Amino acid sequence: MTQNIIKLFLRLALAGGFLSAVADRFGMYSPANSTWGNWDSFLEFTQMINPWFPESIIPTLGAVATAAEVIFALFLIIGFKTELFAKLSGYLLLVFALSMTFSLGIKSAFDYSVFAATAGAFALSVMSNKYLEVDNLISNRKS
């Protein structure tokens, strides 16, 4: 497997994970296939893994995380500023992993493969080749 294919797979897998989680919290999956199933359940989970934040901040925290996941996913899919958005994705996922670890225990973070996704995002951020990325088109126009 070439590095180009691996990089494309990492981009799409990370983006897919983000978008799937967002779809779940907006009720786009059947109850049998949902973790949260709706926004309120997602906010309850957000409060559970972030007990150090006041309850009044949780809706904002959930909205910011959701917006970040959508934006990061879209930019990873099209390959815009891939290195930057892969790093930001890694940091976001690391925050999720550490929040889960400190509030629920490390098993939950491992069960949801959050550390593996974090590592994948950071690995993607150091892959310098451009393959099927908007970044490649932009750099070719500047030349």
Short description:
The chain is mainly alpha-helical and 143 residues long. The chain is built from seven helices and no strands.
What do you see in this structure?
With 143 residues, this protein is mostly helical. The protein has one domain. It has seven helices and no strands. The model has no long low-confidence stretch (mean pLDDT 95).
Descriptive terms for the model:
single chain; 143 residues; mainly alpha; 73% helix; elongated
Order of SSEs, N→C? HHHHHHH
Q: What average pLDDT do the residues reach? A: 95
Cα distance spanning the termini: 30 Å
Q: What's the β-strand tally?
A: 0
Rg over C-alpha atoms, rounded to the nearest angstrom: 16 Å
Helix content: over 70%
How many independent structural domains? 1
Shape field: elongated
List the helices and strands and how they pair.
Layout: H1 3-25, H2 39-49, H3 58-78, H4 82-104, H5 106-111, H6 114-125, H7 134-142
